[in-house]
Design a protein that fits this description.
2 domains, about 220 residues, 10 helices, about 60% helix, alpha/beta, Rossmann fold
Length: about 220
């Protein structure tokens, strides 16, 4: 079943009339974003012909929510103006097709056929731009991983133990008991750790260590790049 969602009554009616001969439509078409989620939850919608204008302030972030409501839904996003970066974001958030609202109904029919076969309908240069965007993201994340690695590596083995205890939510007394040292020693070590990492409190330290471990599990910060 195909659902049309657009605040433009004329456009929605035009799409419905042209597509009804070949596709089973949900009627009436949705005119307000607030009704879209309810319709998706209650009906077996396979395709969503989505006018970008209905997303309003939520923008493309709304796409991921719609996909979370119906994981196998195939969203055809129709926009007023083509934007290369927006096309990448739309696909990442769940759209299967990205095209202009001026796209003819005959082409829309072809789009539905293509995405039914498991393909995407995007600009020819999409893959090249996506790879460049992923490369830029990888470099940025690697740089961030190096930052957290360098700070963590500046700590002594004992300081790392204490920092990890803080990240686990241990108070000073429990850290002292766990490591068989005095609370005074714990406080002294924490002061040094704060200075080395240029942070000012336990919460920042816990976040720093947690972030470091997250990057360490995914990124090889010491790899060449």
């Amino acid at each position: 079943m195909l659902l049309i969602a657009t605040p433009d009554s004329t456009l929605g009616q035009s799409w419905a009339e042209a597509l009804s001969a070949e596709f089973r439509l949900y009627e009436p078409f949705v005119k307000e974003g607030k009704n879209l989620e309810a319709v998706l939850k209650k009906n077996p919608i396979d395709f969503l012909l989505l006018d970008q204008d209905i997303l309003q302030a939520e923008g493309l972030n709304k796409l991921s929510l719609l996909v979370s409501l119906k994981a196998d839904i195939k969203i055809i996003l129709l926009v007023n103006h083509y934007q290369a970066q927006e096309e990448i974001s739309a696909v990442i958030f769940g759209a299967k097709a990205y095209c202009l609202k001026t796209t003819s109904v005959e082409i829309i029919k072809k789009i539905i056929q293509k995405i039914s076969a498991g393909e995407l309908w995007v600009d020819r240069q999409f893959v090249s731009r996506l790879l460049l965007a992923l490369e830029d993201l990888t470099k940025a994340k690697h740089k961030e991983a190096v930052y957290f690695d360098s700070g963590y590596d500046s700590l002594t083995p004992r300081e790392k133990e204490i920092a990890n205890c803080v990240a686990s939510g241990y108070p000073n007394r429990k850290i002292a008991n766990t490591l068989n040292i005095s609370e005074r020693t714990v406080k002294a070590h924490l002061g040094v750790i704060f200075r080395k990492l240029t942070i000012s409190d336990r919460l920042q330290l816990a976040l720093y260590i947690t972030k470091h471990h997250q990057f360490s599990s995914v990124w090889s910060a010491k790899a060449p790049g």
